[in-house]
Write a structure and sequence with these properties.
The complex is a heterodimer.
Chain A: E1 3-14, E2 17-28, E3 32-36, H1 43-50, E4 58-63, E5 66-67, H2 73-79, E6 81-83, H3 96-103, H4 112-117, H5 120-140, H6 156-169, E7 174-178, H7 186-203, E8 206-210, H8 214-220, E9 223-228, E10 231-236, H9 238-242, H10 245-252, H11 256-267
Parallel strand pairs in A: 3-8, 3-9, 6-7, 7-8
Antiparallel strand pairs in A: 1-2, 1-4, 4-5, 9-10
Chain B: H1 2-22, H2 26-45, H3 51-84, H4 90-114, H5 119-143, H6 149-171, H7 180-193, H8 204-223, H9 231-251, E1 255-259, E2 262-268, E3 284-285, E4 289-290, H10 296-318, H11 321-331, H12 333-338, H13 343-369, H14 379-392, H15 397-429, H16 439-458, H17 474-481
Helix pairs in contact in B: 1-2, 1-3, 1-15, 2-3, 2-4, 3-4, 6-10, 6-13, 6-14, 6-15, 7-8, 7-9, 7-13, 8-13, 10-13, 11-13, 14-15, 14-16, 15-16
Chain lengths: ~270, ~475
């Protein structure tokens, strides 16, 4: 299996703080991979470095065979990486449909002249984009009557879904989801788990997930990488990570490993 | 019922103010305005469903509007005029009162009925009502002896600029405090090529394109250093540009350039310095001939045409890939970038396209007064434009137009007329110590400042907020988002 995303020695320093510390990381094409770690482990910084919000201090990022280092965020998006944000960052004063249509920006071609003369191509592109946006809202399960609501007026769960729809609109090969179930109830989380699976299975989009909900992570992931204090401490199948002493230590502190180990054997949970 | 009366008071206040300040037959015009605004505002407070109810509602709203207008007419003619020594003509007052009432009721009912139509037909209906008023205005002005015509034209010039500024501030969320610079650049570009200054003397119809293109290029040039800046910092830099441009223009009257001691040109007068450029060619059209300064009607239709075309194109931009990108940029620049928007290009396009409309306005303005001076483009022009945009509602064209009309109306018509009346009242009162008060010039900036403060405190989304408009100025929004 080939890797769609591969980083080698990826490092990001902010002054004296090393937020991401020479991380070697790979995501297999077509997989659902999770990135976990305690708070402040550098997961989101890792996402931001991959998507061009930060320039890496050193190291390489290869996406589908091309380097992403030095690319601007919009170029990374055009290259085929879509993302959502940990703290929802929708365009609040735009409707749900418009939010999704913004996501299609890099796949549309209308220029100023075409817009001003309202050329047949621009009209067609606009109509297609609108139809596609509605289809995407439907696919993530946003109720049709909500499509023209301002996104700031949507309920929390729908805002999360809308963010996923907007990221899908960028037509990605790889989708980065930053804590998609944060603040959701168990029912909503279960629905979202289904959605993530469906996106991978039906659209053949590789998924990289940051998540704190261990149940979801263990259930959905085909591969898990653990970061702690910026460095990668483990990577592998969910069942290996579950029993990895270093991982348990990172989450619970030294000495907890042996205790949690016994626990895990009984309940099938890492904690 | 209560809401209806309260909302129609907006129209009524306009009618009252116009009738009180301008007096006489202007009262009929005041009735028209009161009816128009009341008829527009009332169905917003309480959606109208069937036509018969709409007629009833329109009548009630119009009643409020016309009573206030009549009160204005009576106060002016029976109260103020005798004091300041104007003759009283009972017949004219009677005609004005009847005319104001009929027009107010008629227009208000028509507006209310139009607004019960389904959205698509409502738009067409509104366009027809507004179109009729705009087209017949010059004759209405003559018939009612309003003498507003020479002020209405600059008002339209400023509205055109406000629409351009709205692209930059309202759509893209880039607070530009030096927007008048592009007005100056457009005006000077047109003046240089369309006057005997350099002996070029191109036709106005060519010069206006030169002005638009030059303003757009300067939009790019002045926009590019501001790209990494946000909120307050952007405002400070644009404020600087707004100050630099008129000063530069004032000092570009003796330009010398040499390369390695070879003088390319010496002491060239680029801009005419403080004297400005004068005269500038006026437009010429078959049948009408050259537009004359004494007949404002062709000028009125020319600037009205430019404005309508601009509105048409701006709304196309607004509802396009680019318009959405602007809004996304305003809402969340970081997320916009992550969604594939090239924020640099989109910002520069906002500056350039916004400047283009200012350039058009500048070219027209120069030709209209046939002279330009650096003094015409000072900071207060930028501030006034910003007031116009904020009062009506950031990011919403109909709001900007309404806000613009109110501010301009207050500045150009209301204040001078009011000043006149106040002056005469002071003279009539015989109080010598108050003689030196000049209402218009003394209170002008105070009123702008007061408007801005009151709007920001009471209604930051503007008079006519669009559902897609930002609720606050970009500065405040930018601060809230810094995380």
């Amino acid at each position: 299996m080939t890797n769609i995303l591969e980083t080698r020695g990826l490092t990001k320093r902010f002054g004296g703080l090393t937020a991401v510390d020479s991380v070697d990381f790979s995501v297999a094409t077509g997989s659902i991979t999770s990135l976990i770690g305690p708070n402040g482990a550098g997961k989101t910084t890792f996402f931001n470095t991959v998507t061009g919000l930060y320039t890496p201090t050193s190291g390489t990022i290869a996406f589908a065979g091309r380097s992403l280092v030095g690319l601007k965020p919009h170029e990374v998006t055009a290259a085929g990486i879509g993302r959502t944000f940990q703290n929802i960052r929708l365009f609040g004063n735009m409707t749900a449909v418009e939010n999704v249509m913004v996501g299609m920006h890099s796949r549309m071609h209308a220029n100023v002249l075409g817009i001003l003369v309202h050329s047949a191509r621009v009209q067609h592109e606009e109509a297609t984009a609108r139809a596609k946006a509605h289809a995407l809202l439907d696919a993530v399960g946003l109720p049709a009557q909500r499509a023209d609501d301002l996104s700031k007026n949507l309920p929390y769960g729908d805002q999360r879904r809308l963010e996923i729809a907007r990221a899908l609109a960028t037509d990605p090969q790889l989708l980065l989801l930053d804590e998609p179930t944060a603040g959701m109830n168990p029912h909503e989380t279960a629905e979202l788990t289904q959605l993530i699976r469906r996106i991978r299975d039906e659209r053949a989009i590789t998924i990289l997930l940051i998540e704190h909900d261990m149940k979801l992570v263990m259930e959905i992931s085909e591969s898990i990488t653990v970061l702690d204090r910026g460095a990668k401490i483990a990577a592998g199948l969910p069942k290996d990570i579950r029993s990895n002493e270093q991982v348990i230590e990172a989450y619970l502190g030294r000495g907890a490993a042996s205790m949690a180990h016994a626990n895990a054997r009984n309940t099938g949970e890492p904690t | 019922m209560q809401i209806r009366i309260r909302t129609s008071m907006i129209g009524a206040a306009f009618g009252f103010a116009i009738a009180l300040i301008s007096g006489g037959f202007a009262g009929i015009f005041a009735g028209l305005v009161a009816g128009l605004i009341s008829g527009y505002v009332v169905p917003q407070a309480e959606p109208l469903t069937d036509k018969r109810r709409a007629v009833g509602q329109g009548m009630i709203a119009a009643l409020v509007g016309s009573v206030m207008t009549i009160l204005g007419i009576v106060l002016r003619n029976m109260g103020i005029d005798p004091i300041i020594g104007e003759p009283l003509n009972i017949l004219a007052v009677g005609i004005a009162i009847i005319g104001a009432t009929i027009l107010c009721v008629l227009v208000c009912v028509v507006m209310c009925v139009v607004r019960t139509e389904p959205p698509a037909r409502e738009r067409i209906g509104m366009a027809i009502v507004v179109g009729i008023i705009l087209v017949t205005y010059p004759w209405l002005d003559q018939f009612l002896n309003l003498r507003f015509m020479n002020e209405v034209i600059p008002v339209l010039v400023f509205l055109l600029m406000a629409l351009g500024l709205n692209i930059v501030v309202g759509y893209a969320g880039l607070l530009d405090l030096g927007y008048a610079a592009f007005f100056a650049i457009g005006a000077y570009a047109a003046a240089m090529v369309s006057s005997p200054h350099f002996g070029l003397s191109l036709s106005f119809w060519l010069a206006i394109w030169v002005a638009a293109a030059t303003a757009a290029i300067f939009g790019l040039i002045l926009g590019s250093p501001t790209l990494p800046l946000r909120g307050d910092y952007l405002a400070i830099v644009t404020l600087g540009f707004g100050e630099i441009v008129p000063i530069a223009i004032k000092n570009l009257d003796k330009v010398s350039l040499s390369i390695w001691n070879y003088p390319l040109f010496v002491d060239v007068d680029l801009t005419g310095g403080t004297k400005g450029i004068n005269p500038i060619n006026r437009p010429w059209l078959p049948i009408i001939g050259e537009f004359s300064p004494s007949n404002p009607i062709p000028w009125y239709f020319l600037i009205l045409g430019i404005m309508l075309i601009s509105i048409f194109f701006i709304s196309r931009l607004r509802n396009s890939r680019l318009g959405r990108a602007w809004t996304a940029l305003r809402e969340d620049e970081l997320a916009a970038g992550a969604m594939g928007i090239n924020t640099v290009n989109v910002k520069l396009l906002a500056f350039a396209i916004g400047a283009t409309f200012s350039g058009l306005a500048g070219a027209f303005y120069g030709a209209y007064i046939s002279a330009i001076f650096p003094e015409s483009f000072r900071f207060d022009v930028s501030v006034m434009l910003l007031c116009m945009v904020i009062l009506g509602g950031l990011g919403n064209m109909s709001g900007v137009i309404l806000g613009g009309i109110i501010i301009q109306f207050a500045d150009r018509l209301f204040l001078p007329q009011m000043s006149n009346v106040v002056q005469k009242l002071i003279v009539a009162s015989g109080n010598e110590s108050l003689r030196d008060i000049n209402f218009a010039s003394d209170f002008r900036l105070l009123l702008f400042g007061l408007t801005l403060v009151l709007m920001m405190v009471l209604r930051p989304q503007g008079l006519v907020p669009s559902n897609g408009a930002p609720r606050v100025l970009p500065v405040a929004a930018g601060e809230a988002r810094h995380d």
